[in-house]
């Protein structure tokens, strides 16, 4: 059945706009940090607790306010930064960290309460984006918007793709209208180590899917941290940078943390995170093994075979237990010819080790030097036993 003239007219008014591709003018990506931060695009920065996500984000913000250099040495175009945080207090955390990072504080706008006819209320990114946009009409140089945490922009179920996409779209639109990069900070889901970094972002997969660039952080056993590029739909992915957090005095009796950037890293985000987190896991496992050894041997010496059996039952790899020996202060001895070896906790005051097979952790350049009284006494006792059995040197003559 053909449509009536009235139906055709209504369709023309309410219909979908179709634009020939030939009529669309191509534009290059407008990078703030080439390959890492782009104007008008949504980015997600995610990682486990303690990796310094917010501090790293504020370091990037400080670079923009000063027109400083990025970790790769390129120069950032100067601009203003907008920061909203639902987790950190501006007075004792955000602004001190910005000062520590060397930011031009006059170019940083902190999002505060939303004013209403009744009384001010905390800013709600799920409801107040329009009001925020009206306030930003006074500024034409906003280059970066930080939302921490980005999940707060979702008023519905953050695990449902449709609701997440619908909730984040106003934030994406705001970034496009302001021509600024939007950086949403998020966490990794618990127990997600080893999985694809995009899948580890807490909540719906839509957070990682909607973002054009996903950055991730990790912390290794040695305390070093890394920033890696897990995904990019608008440029290269992979690679990263090492960084450390350091506390500095910012005056007024206050200290704050800041980022110290290190060397560039190669590899995929999954590889880089896997290497760092494996080191951390091994450190935790060995620490647990030390505590376990001390507890098991606290009752007295134990044959090595029994230690190994209990280690298996406790779920510790034998190699891990062996590595934990020295840190636990465990000594391995044999009771005599044909007797099984035993492990015992060292107690130099009551049971000194006469001739250890390896230096003790507290000896040498990093610990005590010289023989202890217990060691001297033990050596003298050993000399008496030798003389009693074999006689003195004068007897031989």
Polypeptide structure, described:
- This protein is an alpha/beta fold.
- The chain folds into three domains: 26-266, Rossmann fold (3-Layer(aba) Sandwich), CATH 3.40.50; 270-346, Arc Repressor Mutant, subunit A; 349-397, no CATH class.
- The protein contains twelve helices and 14 strands.
- It has helices at 5-14, 53-66, 90-100, 129-135, 161-178, 197-200, 206-210, 269-297, 304-314, 318-328, 373-390, 393-396, and strands at residues 31-33, 37-38, 42-47, 80-85, 108-110, 142-148, 181-187, 213-219, 225-232, 240-251, 254-265, 302-303, 330-334, 341-345.
- The strands form three sheets. The chain has a nine-stranded mixed beta sheet with strand order 5-4-6-7-3-8-9-10-11. A three-stranded antiparallel beta sheet has the order 12-14-13.
- Helix 2 packs across helix 3.
- The chain starts with a helix and ends with a helix.
So how many helices? 12
Measured between the Cα atoms of the first and last residue, the distance is: 131 Å
Given this structure, which CATH class of the largest domain is correct?
Alpha Beta
Strand content: 15-25%
Write down the domain tally: 3
> Mind telling me the C-alpha Rg?
32 Å
Q: What would CATH call the architecture of the largest domain? A: 3-Layer(aba) Sandwich
SS-derived structural category: alpha/beta
State the helical fraction: 25-40%
Mean pLDDT: 82
**Number of strand segments:** 14
CATH topology of the largest domain: Rossmann fold
The outline comes out as elongated
User: How would a textbook summarize the main sheet?
Assistant: 9 strands, mixed
Low-confidence stretches: 348-377, 392-397
Write down the secondary-structure element order.
HEEEHEHEHEHEHHEEEEHEHHEEHH
Under CATH, the homologous superfamily of the largest domain reads: P-loop containing nucleotide triphosphate hydrolases
Widest sheet: strand ordering:
5-4-6-7-3-8-9-10-11
